[in-house]
Design brief:
It is built from 12 helices and 2 strands; from the N terminus they run E-H-E-H-H-H-H-H-H-H-H-H-H-H. The chain is globular and about 60 Å long. The model is unreliable at 1-5 and 12-18 (pLDDT under 50). With 311 residues, it is mainly alpha-helical. A two-stranded antiparallel sheet has the order 1-2.
Amino acid sequence: MNLKGEFSILLRGEKDRRTPMKSLNEDIKTGNFKPVYLLYGEEAYLKKQYRDRLTKAVLPEGDTVNYAHYEGKGINVPEIIDLAETMPQKLVAHTGMDAMTHAIEAYVSTANCDFTDPLALHAIKMIQSDLIPSYNGDMEKRDSMHNAQCLAGMAFSNALLGIVHSMAHKTGAAFADYGAHIIHGAANAMYLPKVIAFNAKDETAKKRYGEIADFMKLGGNTLDEKVELLIAHLRRMNDDLNIPHCIKNYGADSFPTEQGFVPEEVFLERLPEIAANAILDACTGSNPRQPSQEEMEKLLKCCYYDTDVDF
């Protein structure tokens, strides 16, 4: 292909019928970004212009998010390794539980297959073994976690995800006007046990959660016991990683607190719209159990109050 004098954008995300440049402009305007953008062609000034616009949109002035930029040849590999070794502890926790969610959702997704299952299961086993030590400063386990996260990414890139991610996507910035975001990895960690309980009402999903519990050697004689042990194990991991169990106790700094930054009345007021948006999220289609509007609202309430999922 001759790209001379051309500028193109390749979007890595959901299918999009809009022209790439129009799509990118709308993404910047709305703040709904794809996982990856590839800017290519010989029009260097356009590549730089859109790169800078994307960076500014993702990282507004004064934003404290951890950010590093590498471009071209001569990248300093030890510097990248140093970034991994100096990750803030809560970033280790949130990215690790995000990866655990990737792997578990990929394994129970309706798009799972023989090629994705081994990736998902091995990632789960590694994260079970290595995340907590990595969080506590073990650099060998930190290195292993990068492999586990890559495996989980390979699994979900092919098997897709589920409603844990749908809910995390739609609650993340929903309360930004109250001073904070619900960080994506923390949201996944809080919602995952609730979604497992919801999905396990589907017999096929319950069986696959049981297989995960067996692979993790959690015990249990029946599928119900195995699902309960899996949920309990994930909640203990959240405790060990200082991640709250629910939105009500999610502080503006992401740590557990008696009263979180999202007021109850605000959550309830915005609940119907958040639930509707979560149902429409791209990840919902491959979830093993399709929630109704009423069920999604009830599930989000369980995630706010940390109550049992009995529907």
